[in-house]
Write a structure and sequence with these properties.
The complex is a heterodimer of chains A (109) and B (164). By secondary structure, chain A is an all-alpha fold. In chain A, 78% of the residues lie in helices and 0% in strands. In chain A, helix 1 packs across helix 2, helix 2 runs antiparallel to helix 3 and helix 3 packs antiparallel against helix 4 (65-96). The chains are: A mainly alpha (109), B mainly alpha (164).
């Protein structure tokens, strides 16, 4: 199952194309939206795209359990990133009263 | 089946990118996570699908929506300075990256060989297999992940508390 057939019916290339498009949309969110919370969600989207690619490769290499273990580590790091990132957004909001990344471009108060 | 979940995933992500209201964007993101969980199911990996729903759709999105509602920043603030050039450059960059990468995937001979050789469906991933691999081969990594989560928890409390 290769080429267009793989994209429509779930061959390896189909999963990789979905992962790539998901990554591109996440990157576009980070670049185009100004709200820090939206940019944060874009980062989560990119992490998810990486997970899709990882588990797709794992399935087409015979269903190795190592990939699922690494997926576990990735979501542990993603959870840490979520907690710290949101704490930083709350801290910024307390100091400046905004969640707009353009308004938080300078280090000076 | 695959095309359905792929559509749910990508439409949710697009909805998130284009949605003005941050809360609705967050709910679109939940749809994306469910779509990704469905893709994991089709990849014979129900363990990852369950983890995806519990951790992402459950924990992380609740955290994000909680912060959105707490900060009362439902709408994007008006732009301080319009930056049309930067926006168009970033759109062009992302489009070029996506197009190039998709073209690379579709023409790669190595991926084609892997797709053909990996065609037979492997047995579904079980929690037992994951647990055995995790504790037999990655015990140190598991402990480090635990310490990292603890450090993140303490850090989040320290960052948000007004006066410790």
């Amino acid at each position: 199952m290769t080429g267009m057939d793989a994209i429509l019916n779930g061959g390896l290339q189909g999963y990789l194309v979905v992962a790539l498009l998901l990554f591109a949309i996440g990157l576009a969110t980070v670049l185009l939206r100004r709200t820090l919370l939206m940019q944060f969600m874009g980062v989560e989207l990119m992490l998810n795209a990486a997970n899709v690619a990882l588990l797709a490769f794992a399935r087409f290499r015979g269903g190795d359990a190592q990939a699922t273990v690494f997926y576990l580590f990735i979501i542990a790091v993603a959870a840490c990133e979520a907690a710290i990132g949101l704490a930083l957004v709350i801290g910024l909001y307390r100091h400046r009263g905004t969640t707009d990344s353009d308004r938080a471009a300078g280090l000076k108060q | 089946m695959f095309i359905t979940f792929a559509f749910v995933t990508l439409l949710g992500a697009l909805g998130m990118l284009l949605q003005k209201n941050v809360i609705v964007a967050g709910l679109c993101m939940v749809a994306t996570f469910f779509g990704v969980a469905g893709l994991f199911l089709l990849l014979a990996n129900p363990v990852a699908a369950a983890l995806q729903i519990i951790v992402y759709s459950g924990a992380i999105m609740v955290l994000v929506l909680f912060v959105i509602m707490m900060l009362n920043s439902h709408e994007e603030e008006a732009a301080q300075t319009a930056r049309p050039v930067q926006r168009w450059v970033s759109v062009a960059l992302v489009a070029a990256l996506a197009f190039g990468a998709v073209k690379l995937v579709l023409t790669s001979a190595g991926l084609k060989a892997l797709a053909v050789s990996g065609e037979p469906m492997p047995g579904a991933m079980t929690l037992q297999k994951v647990g055995t691999t995790l504790f037999a081969e990655h015990l140190l990594g598991f402990e480090v992940a635990g310490i990292l989560l603890l450090a993140a928890m303490v850090g989040a409390v320290a960052l948000t508390k007004r006066n410790l």
